[in-house]
Design goal:
The chain has about 300 residues and is α/β, with parallel strands linked by helices.
Length: about 300
Amino acid sequence: MASVISIVGLTKTYASGVEALRPIDLDIEKGEIFALLGPNGAGKTTLISIVCGIVTATTGSVTADGHDIVRDYRAARMKIGLVPQELHTDSFETVWATVTFSRGLFGKPPSPGHIEKVLRDLSLWDKRDAKVQELSGGMKRRVMIAKALSHEPEILFLDEPTAGVDVELRRDMWGLVRELREGGVTIILTTHYIEEAEEMADRVGVISKGELIVVEEKNALMKKLGRKTLTLNLAEPLAALPGGLDAWALELKAEGHELEHVFDAQAEATGVPALLARLGALGIGWKDLNTRQSSLEDIFVGLVSERRGGAA
């Protein structure tokens, strides 16, 4: 599939000497939902801000639908919509006026029909004549999205789009993002909500300390790096692990009532049957067992912790 965003050798070092981004190479495919995950200060917002023309890169190049964001910035920006983290908008304007004005900033001719559709899709139509300052935080977030969609961009950046909104609104926005993708819009989002990426993303990128440490198709990433956890509910609690179980990575939980074993579900030999046999031989009985597949959050935490450990 063709790349709609192409990033080559992108770095950012501030005047203070802080290295916000190390060399980043990334291609984002047309029509996909790409989730960029990373802890606070990892470089997510800096990366998005450079692509959107808000921050100047130190080195490297970026093209948006074939347009260089520096040499051909007008054409590049026409392709891009941005919903920033901060709720910056015209507090004293009405919802209709501020969204319509945003469209005009990009040189687009008036289109009341398009503005109406955007407001209806975002459940803002009933608030079209309300001043932005009168709205709740969640509604203001919707207005920010409406402003970003006002000029009909083909690429939409969502920087922490559901931060501070309730669960119901978050799920409404997930639905809107899917609809936009079905309409051909490429979505790039940063999020602290791992379930957001797990629910929606086609591919996931993990950034830590300004470095893109992994980019992978979501399901392939979970299959490759995911682990399963076997939990045994013991018939009698154990004060400590007995000898003879060193071949397995085991941990006692719940005050000795549970025995936990983490294993690679993709391995030819998981070690689970042998573990159960050994427990029986040692006279350790269990009442119940269950397994849990690692989530994207488990994988994310593991990757970032591993990188931090390697840098220490």
